[in-house]
């Protein structure tokens, strides 16, 4: 039994359905469920708190090759991106560069800033689902404050070359802000090698954790010069709480780490689950996970092409991820029919989005394709 077969046993959902929607909301595995139930049991019995939320921070930092001091706890990706947006300075005539493939929450924080400033938002247009480096080079100039982009685009799974885009941004003195919600836990991320300045993600997709837990990475050099918009007890130096008198209410002494972007007590229950999920991912190894996901999605693409489907996901290996999207007539109706057969996928971009994780198998994909063919052969509305 290889490691993926063993891990598959941790996911009871595979006994009832074919879950291929990790770009949506992932099912919980047994280690995560047991960790959460154990925590709740202790809380019900009134036992003292024995969970250190910093364990989640350290594990995530390890996953992306960062220092734990560069990681803040946030409830979700959108919060992390909003924090990053409000930390930046926007001189007159400045601009932010993003793309027309982004999930709305990637752009919304900057649209809000635009409402009260002269900020220009520039959109790099996709060409047949691809974002070209030469178009970023044209869009970014010396007035660009940041390039705001997803590592993996949520609709068609196009994976951006973050290092190359970061180099373009940095040549003009701009920063790169990354939404990693569709890559963290599925694709290898190295914030140092990829020269990322800010990165935000949630845990309920590819990271296999519960909602309510997320992370914000802030490059060390940017932390102390960044002034948080919201502050609370979690934002200050924790040495303050080591005295009987707790703190001096006349001074605000912010943490010198990314904790300064935290406000108060996080959802501890969510981070209990996130910790268990991160331990599982790190135990398997992110490179093995990525290779497995690529093996499955490559197989799926070839099978879909054999069956005559039009693939909307760019197929170059350098831009591939865990998401496969193919065109389909009435995709919402077909997704619902698949759901009735126990197959969980999504309708996106006038097509069907399939997103298997490393515990899925080729047999899962074969069964999905069989059900898809049955639906294709059915008269509309039946």
Which key features would you list for this structure?
382 residues, alpha/beta, Aspartate Aminotransferase, domain 1, seven-stranded mixed beta sheet, 12 helices, 12 strands, 37% helix, globular
What does it look like?
With 382 residues, this protein is α/β, with parallel strands linked by helices. It has two domains: 3-28 and 285-377, Aspartate Aminotransferase, domain 1 (Alpha-Beta Complex); 34-282, Type I PLP-dependent aspartate aminotransferase-like (Major domain) (Aspartate Aminotransferase, domain 2, 3-Layer(aba) Sandwich), CATH 3.40.640. It has twelve helices and twelve strands. The chain has helices at residues 3-8, 30-45, 54-64, 77-87, 104-115, 133-139, 162-171, 220-223, 268-284, 286-306, 331-340, 362-377, and strands at residues 18-19, 71-74, 95-99, 120-124, 144-150, 175-179, 198-202, 214-218, 324-327, 343-344, 346-348, 351-354. A seven-stranded mixed sheet has the order 2-8-7-6-5-3-4, sandwiched between helices. The protein has a three-stranded antiparallel sheet with strand order 9-12-11, covered by helices on one side. Helix 4 packs parallel to helix 5 (104-115) and helix 10 (286-306) packs parallel to helix 12. The radius of gyration is 22 Å and the shape is globular.
């Amino acid at each position: 039994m290889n490691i993926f077969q063993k891990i598959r046993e941790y996911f009871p959902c595979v006994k009832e359905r074919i879950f291929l929607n990790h770009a949506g909301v992932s099912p919980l595995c047994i280690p995560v469920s047991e960790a959460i139930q154990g925590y709740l049991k202790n809380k019900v019995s009134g036992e003292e708190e024995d969970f250190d939320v910093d364990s989640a921070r350290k594990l995530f930092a390890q996953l992306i090759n960062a220092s734990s001091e560069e990681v803040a706890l946030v409830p979700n990706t959108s919060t992390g991106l909003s924090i990053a947006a409000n930390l930046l300075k926007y001189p007159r005539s400045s601009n932010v560069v993003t793309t027309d493939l982004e999930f709305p929450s990637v752009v919304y924080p900057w649209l809000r800033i635009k409402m009260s400033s002269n900020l220009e938002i520039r959109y790099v247009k996709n060409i047949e689902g691809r974002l070209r480096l030469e178009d970023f080079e044209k869009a970014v100039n010396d007035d660009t404050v940041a390039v705001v982009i997803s590592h993996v685009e949520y609709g068609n799974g196009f994976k951006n070359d973050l290092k190359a885009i970061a180099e373009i941004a940095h040549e003009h003195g701009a920063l790169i802000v990354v939404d990693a919600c569709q890559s963290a836990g599925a694709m290898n991320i190295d914030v140092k090698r990829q020269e990322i300045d800010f990165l935000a993600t949630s845990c309920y997709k590819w990271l296999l954790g519960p909602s309510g837990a997320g992370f914000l990475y802030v490059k060390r050099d940017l932390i102390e010069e960044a002034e948080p918009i919201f502050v609370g007890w979690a934002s200050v130096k924790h040495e303050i709480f080591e005295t009987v008198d707790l703190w001096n209410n006349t001074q605000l002494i912010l943490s010198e780490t990314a904790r300064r972007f935290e406000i108060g007590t996080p959802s501890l229950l969510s981070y209990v689950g996130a910790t268990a999920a991160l331990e599982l991912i790190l135990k398997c190894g992110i490179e093995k996970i990525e290779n497995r996901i690529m093996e499955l999605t490559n197989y799926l693409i070839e099978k879909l092409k054999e069956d005559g489907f039009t693939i909307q996901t760019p197929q170059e290996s350098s831009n591939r991820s865990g998401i496969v999207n193919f065109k389909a007539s009435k995709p919402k109706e077909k997704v619902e029919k698949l759901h009735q057969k126990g197959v969980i996928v999504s309708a996106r971009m006038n097509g069907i989005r399939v997103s298997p994780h490393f515990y899925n198998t080729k047999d899962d994909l074969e069964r999905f394709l069989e059900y898809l063919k049955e639906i294709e052969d059915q008269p509309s509305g039946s």
